[in-house]
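Researcher: Structure for this, please.
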Amino acid sequence: MALTNPQNIRVDAFNSHVRHLAQQEASKLLPYVDKDSPEAETNAWDFLGIGETGPKSRDTASAGNETGRQWSRRQAVAVPYVDHELVESQDPTMMMTDPNSKLIRSMGMAAGRAYDDIILGAAIGNANVITRSGAVPTTTPTALAAGQIIGDGLSPISFDYLAQVVKLFGTNEIDPTVFKVAVVSPHQVYELLNLTEQTSSDYVAREALQKLNASGVVANWMGMHWIMSTRVPVETNDMRSCVFMTMDAVGLHSPQDVTTYFERDPSRQYAWRPQCEFSAGAVRLEDAQIVKLIVAETGTLA
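Model: Predicted structure, token format:
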């Protein structure tokens, strides 16, 4: 006799491993900033301006050769960040996988992305410049100098634009041997992969072309380490900001690094409370160490 409705007792199999959806899993920029972590709300970096040497006037009571070097200070303010979820006490017993450990890992990845947002925001945003009149400090939000901005957002990234970036670093007396980072979006990488100067052995050593790094750009091309990031800021629709900087360009103040908790909350019927938190702030330390390039990027940007 034939089976009746065998589909009613068929087995539904599934993989017990929980996968995280595609996402940036760690900070890409933390290794390339000046990080300092005293336990304080604010942290400041002091700078001494440039001076020049001149010929000495002999046999004079007042030489008059004082340059008058200027001292300056910039400050980062730490802001607390938090990410938490609620897991009912019964949930772990009803799931094959304990959700708490997976949530903690997801929170850690989100924290890494938040660090990149903080760094990029400080790189091209307003910097807190501290001045004093007597004993009273004054904080002045200061925009990136206009001379450090290249492009009007009407043209895509190009070899000429990048040559202008290299020229500007040189004009600012940033030595060519100083380590520099280029942060661009996937669309700029697409443009660069179609750029002859980046993909032809007429311009780049054949061995280098065979070893394209994870960003899709030849390692150390144009004297920079290339980072592909979806976190680079949007100027306006169809315009994107690319950030080029040295490791002395941005100061990161992080009095509390990423910290995770995993406790029961008696106020919520003893549900589990996985939580991740940290405190951080950043400041652009020196405009000369950063170049902002505004390029066209077709399509709606998010």
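Researcher: Any notable elements?
Model: The mean pLDDT is 88. The chain has six helices and 13 strands.
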